[in-house]
Amino acid sequence: MAVIKTNSSDARLLARLIRAEAEGEGDLGMLMVGNVGVNRILGNCIDFRNIRTMSQMVYQSPGGFEATQKGYFYQKARDSEIRLAQRVINGERRWPATNALWYFRPAADCPNTWYDQQHVGRFKAHCFYAPTQENCPSVY
Fold it and tell me: Across residues 123-137, what is the average pLDDT?
């Protein structure tokens, strides 16, 4: 059962995003990027107030994803990414992205905080950051 309202076009859009943002991180890394995207729709908090649809989340500017901001969001989603996107839409969550609203790829170690959010873990090259439950209960 889906945790956010979507259609097949939304699933393809999320699949394009996870490919553009994390193709080099493998299936698990792409699932985590999808977790962050779904969390931003669920959250309705902090920088993501009134982000209620997949399109609003993917194309949010400022504050959105680097792939859509910097022009490397051009590849079509493959069936494998569409399946990953559907898993995330259906509620699959993976640590450290379980409650995360942000991630980034630093040149060195993960900072303890990023934009006042706590570091919750790292997967390969990406550091993940989550709000407190008090600041954003909808992602918990």
Answer: 96
